[in-house]
Design a protein that fits this description.
two-stranded antiparallel sheet, Rossmann fold, 6 helices, alpha/beta, nine-stranded mixed sheet, single chain, 11 strands
Length: 251
């Protein structure tokens, strides 16, 4: 069990142990919009990953997410020993004042599990209104160290030269740099002219480039993305009355 030493405490409660040493941890919490969460959910479903841990805090909403007749924590980790991969998912946006603590806990857990890489995706507001004319998403990368930056470039992902990366992704990049942990940030602009399904496809394809051993099947991506998006939006609407389950402050 991993618990952050700072207050407020973020606890990762592992209830099923798998050997994912040398594998990859994918953080897919909602940021701007739902593209990150949809991509993570699609990977979990496609690879049939098992839930192995819950990410919990007294500051998190006291709700249970019911899926396939089973209760689940609102933030959790799914994983597989073959392929060696883990995915963090959540139905709510992490409050801004908890992002750094969540990031530290995730990195501590990834180090304990001996993961070789942490991947985090994040939506960013559009800086240039002319970019709205584009019909395809643009995915940029940021690495916590030179090794990760070289890996991103080697698979054809362009690096962000300058900008501000918000949220858990930004915290993971900063803490990864200080802790000498390989963290790859995948950034996408939220463009009202580009459907979420295209952004999700771009994210999944970028992740597949970084982890080719996953053999992700993107043939059913468009149909599955629409189903997942409807499910997440239904859950989001059902929790609008709870301020702790509020929508992203960025979107």
């Amino acid at each position: 069990m991993i618990t952050s030493t700072q207050s407020p405490a973020i606890e990762i409660r592992t209830f099923k142990k798998l050997d994912i040493s040398g594998g990859v941890l994918i953080e897919s919490f909602p940021s701007i919009g739902l593209a990150s969460a949809i991509a993570g959910t699609y990977i979990v479903k496609s690879l049939r990953l098992n839930q192995i841990a819950a990410i919990d805090s007294t500051r998190f909403p006291s709700v249970s997410i019911i899926s396939a007749e089973k209760p689940e924590f609102p933030a959790r980790i799914y994983a597989s020993a073959d392929p060696k991969v883990a995915v963090c998912l959540s139905e709510f946006t992490i409050p801004a004042d908890l992002e750094i603590y969540v990031a530290k806990s995730i990195l501590s857990w990834s180090r304990e599990e001996k993961c070789s890489l942490v991947i985090s995706s994040c939506g960013m507001p559009m800086m240039d209104q002319d970019d709205q004319k584009r019909q395809d998403p643009v995915i940029s990368g940021v690495g916590s160290n030179e090794h990760t930056r070289l890996k991103l470039k080697s698979v054809g992902i362009s690096l962000l030269e300058s900008g501000v990366v918000p949220g858990v992704t930004g915290a993971l990049l900063n803490e990864g740099k200080l802790s000498s942990i390989d963290v790859a940030g995948l950034l996408f602009e939220v463009n009202p002219e580009v459907p979420d399904v295209k952004t999700v496809a771009g994210l999944v394809e970028a992740i597949a480039k970084l982890i080719p051993q996953l053999h992700l099947d993107v043939s059913s991506l468009y149909q599955e993305t629409e189903r997942i998006e409807n499910m997440l939006r239904t859950r989001e609407q059902s929790n609008e009355s709870d301020p702790s389950m509020r929508a992203s402050p960025y979107g």
